[in-house]
What does this fold into?
Amino acid sequence: MGSSSNTNTSGGGSDKEEKEDKGKGKDSSEPSFKEGDRVLAYHGPLLYEAKVQRIENLEDEWRYFVHYLGWNKNWDEWVANDRLLKLTDENIRKQQELEKNQVVDKTVKSGRSTQHKLKGANADAKADKDDTKNLVKGKKRKTQPGTEEKEKRSSESLLVSQFPLTLKKQLVDDWENVTQLGKLVKLPRSPTVDDILKRYLEHRAKKDNKINDSYAEILKGLRCYFDKALPAMLLYKKERDQYTEEVKSDISPSTVYGAEHLLRLFVKLPELLAFVNMEEDALNKLQQKLLDILKFLQKNQSTFFISVYDDRKGADGSKSK
It folds into this structure.
């Protein structure tokens, strides 16, 4: 799952999908959903079953506080009408189709990946690399009926329960600056995501007295995920015009964006790891490595993260002041 109070990331779906089965939208005198309603909510490119817990009207626009069923309460969040669909048979089929298409799309894109031959590597190093390849390929677990919710909880447990508190506050401040105050992260950032990942690899090499191949593979996977996930699930609506201006066809987002958006990716990782095909022990080891990267971000928080956001026009044309 992606973030909520953590990032409150905007949902996916095509324009056509967003127009279907929505509520009445902005300026509606009545809310489209009421407290206690079971709904389907966009989170990134997928739909998840959720329950409306609270509603409010903010500047003539209804918002709904939802809990994603089967997920930790950390992912509860406020969403607008365009993130919600009614829980109907047709929309459930749409949910299943989106999940199916995402798995197929990831498999096709990763199917041409080069297979690395490991020479002289020990069993643990090989397992680490295999785990990372599974993460990059995004293979869906084979599950028995009734086990999906258990596996989701298991895959998210470490990253969610041990997410550093100071970084959680960083996420909340980031969300408030962009969505509430209309401010943006000034681009290009320094250090960039690329710079941060390189610094972490140097940090591990110094700590281990060698270049750790398993960490190198994980960082490569994170960079790949970041570049693909940023436009799809890591941007707020007000940041999309800025993305179009700064990221051209031959530019990788990881060379433009920095720690603020990289941290949003870590909130999405439990959702991605829920579909990784690996044994529980190997999954836990992978999560421990990801947590080590998070701790590196926390240790360098004052250096990597900005404290003042750019007070420029957002995508909605408003200027905060």
